[in-house]
Amino acid sequence: MVRNTGPTRPFGMMDRLGYMFGDFGNDFTFLLSSMFLMKFYTDVMDVAAGLVGAMMMLARVVDAFTDVAMGQICDRSRPGKKGKFAPWLRRMCGPVALASFLMYAVWFKNMPMGFKIFWMLFTYLLWGSIFYTSINIPYGSMASAITAEPNQRASLSSFRTVGATLASTVIGVVLPLVVYYEDANGNTVLSGEKMAAAALACSIGAVICYLLCYVMTTERVKMEKVTEKFSFKKLLKVLIGNRALIGIVVAALLLLLAQLTLSGMGNFIYPNYFGNREAMSVATMLSSLITILLSTVIVRLASAYGKRELSTMGALVGAGAMLLAFFLHTKNVWVFVGLYMAATLGFAFFNLLCWSMITDVIDDDEIRTGTRSDGTIYAVYSFARKLGQAASAGLTGGLLSLAGYTAATAFDTSVVNGIYNITCLVPAAGFLLLALGLRFLYPLNKNTVEKNAQILKEKRGE
Question: Which domain holds residue 107?
Fold first, then answer.
């Protein structure tokens, strides 16, 4: 049940900026992992790319339990003065930041391989499956509690993506200029010591951003404690019968597969294929600028044309750009950067809107079942995003191994050509499947979302 209580500060820019800082904090560690962790373990710790990818996929099996468990904890927790979800940001910001820093333990690079693999798996599970889950599930669920208005939720989704984009700018623009250096042969290689220092800086930044989110946001739509006994069988039945949730889950998985492969492979294609780390920084900076500019108009566009409709169109643009890059197989880094910008514009539509789309799914589920399960549904959605992350890491790690990539062969002609093909084809396939999934699986078009919002508004007597 949802109830509105007492006078509170009206929804406004402070909430938007506060919610933005939340994903800024999230992506200080999440993007650092998705962009640099495989490169760190292959090039610095000398662990095979296929093994790193397999480790990331294995961790997602654990997430199948921890994500749903955290969703249940959120739904069943008693709301406090600060609300039901925000307190988790304050509780868990320190542990998630510390675990992220420990993943880049360069001081263990000369240890036996068995120990390095153990440390890699232990710290990755500690960060992603436990601490990151315990802060990300409540943070995502907060959007439903901050406001009940669809357009205001769309603005929260947009600002959340701006926060992620700012983190991407720091990590993708600044770090390549800091953590890489040229070796005696003129090759651009990663410094383990500088990578560890960068991880520490990002962890400190994450804590600051989480606390800003905690202080600046207000939960207005008070969620009552769920008291019904948990039934895993009932949960599966509800999820299987929820077409909107299935659609957004598939879409999230495919988005992350495409987007994270594209960003993660940047640490291979720019230094190894193009021999140009500066272009990587420029590409990330321009990508961030495109996303921020689009965020200024995305709410109006979504209101006019619909979230599903815009996201489908954008995915098709992204697929076309990466297919063109593959067929050109250019040696000109700036041609590739231009096509990367087109792909960024394409997937930015869904990226900016996906967080408000999951609140639309939660609303739709409440109308169908009469029960509101923000934490549980968001946990399932978060798990799907982690599956996309795992699929990206596992697939690219396996493909890099098949292409013959090791620290010793990193600049061989056949290997760098393989890197180029992976960078183009995996995202292109992901974007194309994303468009198909949104069009044929996800049922919440513009009219349905508006109708659901009106039904719930009348139900709450607003």
Answer: 2-459
